Amino acid sequence: MGKLIGIFLIVFAVCHLGYSELDWWENGNFYQIYPRSFKDSNGDGIGDLNGIKEKLDYVKDIGMQGVWLSPIFQSPMADFGYDISDYTKVQPEYGTSDDLLALIEKAHSIGLHLILDFVPNHTSDEHEWFKRSIANDSYYRDFYIWHDGVINATTGARQPPSNWVSQFRYSAWEWNDQRQQYYLHQFGVKQPDLNYRNPNVVEEMKNILRFWLERGVDGFRIDAVPFLFEADIDPATGTYPDEPVIADTSSCPDPNDWCHLNHIYTNSLPEIFDIVYQWRDVVDQWKRDYDTDTKVLLTEAYTSFENLMRMYGDGVHNGSNIPFNFEMMAELNNQSSAEKYDYYVRHWLDNMPQGVYANWVLGNHDNPRLASRFGAQRADLMNIFLQTLPGIAVTYNGEEYGLEDGYVSWEDSVDPQACNADPSTYLKYSRDPERTPFLWDNSKNAGFSTADHTWLPVGQSYENNNIDAQLAAENSHLKIFKQLTALRKSEPAFSSGDYESVVVNNVLLYKRSADTGNTYLMILNIGDQDEVLNLNGLFDDLSGTPEVVLSSLYSGRINGEIVDADSFATKAYNGYVLRWTD
What we know:
Structural class: alpha/beta
CATH architecture of the domain at 124-193 and 232-263: Alpha-Beta Complex
Shape: globular
Number of strands: 23
């Protein structure tokens, strides 16, 4: 059988006794849609809201409860919607405000909840607030971070007030001729940072949340939370402190790269938590005042584990319902061991506060797709992992059917992170490959659009691998995913069950069981070697006969197959879900 590495028991405590008593988002399945690439309804080569509405039944059919849309607000599209010029209007490429209201209504009519992307750290430089701030309007003057800069003692030239670097490379400070000052932009030049030390900014952003709550949205995914605050001006020097260079510059030698500095003055400052708590108060108050379904906050924060735990709340204030768990996305890769997988499950479950829900995020629009990052052969294994862990699952559109990154040439690149690089290095920075169009069928542009030119190329062969083909096949990645979500909904073991795990060689096994219902054993052969396992004796209370409920596409197993627990053969890269019957 191989060496037994260890046995770990973690009780996943929930506040409810059964799935029927859970709120809509608790233990929920959330689906991220990247609107530009999901479905184009009008033939302009860009996905839109009516295209999403057209395909919303598909999202319901694959077992989702919540749908999160990447930004759809009015924008010059310098960063494809993460540079917002009006938070209360829809970007015309995506449709109209009426189209969004119709989408919300459609979602609610079929039992889905719609989440909008809220981008609070910065606006577009074309936002009316920024224009008025440039003009020194008394109310808007300090809506953004401005500074005169400093005079270089050697050259006499004016230069930025600190060495802070943008996420998109180069200085985070940009000179404005009209105002004769520098403004801070932690992302693109066209994305000036808001000043959250100004209470008027705080209140204006709360009003935006209220505006969309009034129109029926079910919550917000909050972008780039760690960037909300920067160190204040040092009164002794009248400027901002420089950030230290990282200790090992060989890992990031270019001083123009964000990774070259240790961001102690511009990232994850303590003040960020109070703002999240204030936003939670807004959505909770809305539910109380209007007796609506629970409105939720999902927070994006690439930050320390301790900070992620603080996102949940501080014991006095409630925080994010779902502080995105990026540990696995950041730390696991196609070489990771089964022990690593197990460690990151236990790390979150062991340390999260009482009365909250774990969440698992394996992919999104900023990272290579699961099938590309972990290998196409592990596509089903990763979805089995995601859907059978205790807590909330978040799926990026396309990963339910094993979609891989599409190829995007330098000439076709549009991501500002890529365009700020060069033809020899752009793929290191580009997020375009994980944003290529959805593959619906074998028609032109994979059924995404009838246009002759789409905003990004499809980037891969789709004639025999698309949604229609996978639905028509006897078995497929998509059918396995649908079986997983149906199992997750129907079985108490997956809504309130414990997590008990064993690692044998490079195989992760974990059991889920509850006071009622069946007991399930997940077996993930993460490594590159087939393994034969004696399942008896690995867990104290397993008895009876195991039955295959589902498994990876190429596992060689048949659903409903009764297997020998004394000698269970697993294939490399394959996952299995077994049900124990007496």
